[in-house]
Specification:
Pfam families: Arginase (PF00491). This is Proclavaminate amidinohydrolase. Keywords: Hydrolase, Manganese, Metal-binding. GO terms for molecular function: agmatinase activity; metal ion binding; proclavaminate amidinohydrolase activity. The chain is built from nine helices and eleven strands. It is an alpha/beta fold. It has a single domain (about 5-300), classed as Arginase, Chain A. A nine-stranded parallel β-sheet has the order 1-5-2-6-11-10-7-8-9, sandwiched between helices. The protein has a two-stranded antiparallel ribbon with strand order 3-4. Strand 3 (about 60) and strand 4 form a beta hairpin. Helix 1 (about 40-50) crosses helix 9 (about 280-300) and helix 8 packs parallel to helix 9. The longest helix has 20 residues, at about 280-300. The chain is globular and about 50 Å long.
Amino acid sequence: MGISTFGKRVYQPDWDKLEADVAVIGAPFDAGTQWRSGARFGPRAVREASTLFSFGHAGAYDHEDEATYLPGSVNIVDMGDADIVHTDTMKSHANIETAVRTALRAGALPVVIGGDHSVNIPCINAFDDQGDLHILQIDAHLDFVDERHGVRYGHGNPMRRAAEKSYVTGLTQVGIRNVSSTAKEGYDAAREMGSDILSVRQMRKLGPEATAARIPEGAKVYVTIDIDGFCPSIAAGTGTPSHGGFLYYEVLELLQQVAGRNEIVGIDLVEVAPDYDPSGGTQILAAQVLLNLLGFIFHEKGHR
């Protein structure tokens, strides 16, 4: 069966030789979790699940859209995992940042598979020389904690750290619901710092097209997807599940709308903790979302 790379695409361990349209990076770090760990096993599980959708290089035909997605002209390469140093958040984050910078220097779209949501912090750090960007976050939790118990770089902090960047011009935070990771002062700070916050029910009222239209026209968009943005009825394999989340097509249609309106310059998908879902459905969902999103992005770029 071979190595379980993402979508059974080529593995390139020599990053100096990276040539790709899409560079997949594993970030198996979960020391930023506040409760249930296990997302360190996410990259391996999502890669294995993605082999279910490995249709070779002829692309995959979607009869609903009457389109072929991810044809052979889209060069997807798996860079393997960033080195994680156990108990050392800053060194592990630095290694993830190096991997993302390497992908960007090669002109590739970085796709990072976590790991807990703290891995978004080094991902966004790596964009400091890429111009302005807007962040679309799909998540159950706001993740806008400034500091808690001395921790500033855990999985409750990434959107606060992102909003502090001069090149992050705003955030659209969708799916936020229930008792969250962030106290009221965090919500107040988020709105003051340019966040547009929508719950699942608010987005359902708007619909995916109107929700996507809230992202500024012409903005370059970085997409960060926490798997707990989905309802745990379809994504049980995560450390901090929150009932009432999105179903598959709600997220898919939002991503398709955004890919059609804006340039997507980076992606991460985090918090898949496969041991909490014996069915394997969570990692299959994650792989399917990523592959479809990549299909939408490169279809808009003319890969048909």
